[in-house]
Amino acid sequence: MNLSTEEVKVYLLKHNIKPSYHRVAILKHLLSEKNHPSVDKIYNELVKEMPTLSKTTVYNTLNLFSGVSIVRVITIEENETRYDGDVSDHGHFKCEKCKTIYDFQIKSVDFETDDLSSFKINEKSVYYKGICPKCLDNKK
Amino acid sequence: MNLSTEEVKVYLLKHNIKPSYHRVAILKHLLSEKNHPSVDKIYNELVKEMPTLSKTTVYNTLNLFSGVSIVRVITIEENETRYDGDVSDHGHFKCEKCKTIYDFQIKSVDFETDDLSSFKINEKSVYYKGICPKCLDNKK
DNA sequence: AATAAATTTGTAATGAATACAACATGATAA
DNA sequence: TTATCATGTTGTATTCATTACAAATTTATT
């Protein structure tokens, strides 16, 4: 998804977040980026254009965003958190070889039996791990 | 599941792991424990009975076990890894209030559409977050 | 018993994430 | 405009889970 700066601002305001320069830049980046970046990756990309950017700001901003569910926190990687600007229902597949995280569509969102009938469900995550086709080919 | 020491030994040998005293103790603990403990929790429980136990040993052993899939790694908690001796297919629900992790049955294991038809899938995880019934009651 | 191999231990190092105080920016009122 | 206050940003220090690694211990083998 590629929104204009103006659209991103409106989107943030809709969630009661002041659209500061940095916040707009970080959200725009996440919406255009498909590779589920880590804080480090986001920082290293954006610091090129915004030399004064601090890594703490990236952390603060992502926590702010995930708090109002406009970004998705992915904990499929055991050592560092990844982020996804696509908050629609979908699963994540992590290749254990090349570490790439792929999106995949899921048939239905209602996995659970009635074990959770009296639970309030706020968030659902589906994580797969294995080997992606590229790495399967390279093995041969 | 509550296996005898002898049964646990056989179970480990079946996976080509030498059943040392510590390994048997850690696996027995995980099989009897239903609360998806962290390394810290396992260590603090077992060090009571085995004063010479080192936390590094717990880490080493759990990595060994997860490598041969006799324990399940749960990364639903963002700061620390949890472990589950129950490797059957089931989902995990984490209460955002009391941090308890509940098990729940899932209807079917085949969530994915054919997006992943050429992927080799080794592991599937389903994580839910929300509020558990106990904490919902306490709010009132 | 002697030697080799595997296991365990404890400390040091790594690195992601947070705490926090100083600083900068933006909004509001006189 | 200028002063005042609130909000956002920065950078450094700290925390803490996890790993690296070498020494010490235990177990297996000749």
Describe the fold and architecture.
The structure is a homodimer of 140-residue chains. By secondary structure, chain A is α+β, with helices and mostly antiparallel strands. Chain A has 5 helices and 5 strands, in the order H-H-H-H-E-E-E-E-E-H. In chain A, the strands form 2 sheets. A 3-stranded mixed sheet of chain A has the order 4-3-5. Chain A is globular and about 45 Å long. The relative contact order of chain A is 0.13. Chain A binds chain B through residues 73, 75-76, 78, 81, 91, 93, 96, 102-108, 110-113, 115-116, 118-133, 136, and chain B through 73, 75-76, 78, 81, 91, 93, 96, 102-108, 110-113, 115-116, 118-133, 136. The structure holds a DNA duplex (30 and 30 nucleotides).
Short synopsis of the structure:
The structure is a homodimer of 140-residue chains. By secondary structure, the first copy, chain A, is α+β, with helices and mostly antiparallel strands. Chain A has 5 helices and 5 strands; from the N terminus they run H-H-H-H-E-E-E-E-E-H.
What is the topology?
Two copies of one chain form a homodimer.
Chain A: H1 5-14, H2 21-32, H3 39-46, H4 55-67, E1 72-74, E2 82-84, E3 91-95, E4 101-104, E5 120-131, H5 133-139
Parallel strand pairs in A: 3-5
Antiparallel strand pairs in A: 1-2, 3-4
Helix pairs in contact in A: 1-2, 3-4
Chain B binds a DNA duplex (30 and 30 nucleotides) through residues 18, 20, 22-23, 38-40, 52-57, 59-60, 63, 78-81.
Low-confidence stretches of chain A: none
- Beta-strand fraction estimate of chain A: 15-25%
- Provide a count of the helices of chain A: 5
What is the H/E string of chain A?
HHHHEEEEEH
Radius of gyration of chain A, whole Å: 17 Å
Summarize the biggest pleated sheet of chain A: 3 strands, mixed
**How much helix, percentage-wise, in residues of chain A?**
25-40%
Q: How would you write the strand order of the largest sheet of chain A?
A: 4-3-5
* Strand element count of chain A: 5
The assembly state of the depicted protein chains is homodimer
Biggest interface pair, counts: A-B, 38 and 38 residues
Category from helices, strands and their pairing of chain A: alpha+beta
Shape of chain A: globular
How far apart, in Å, are the first and last alpha carbons of chain A? 36 Å
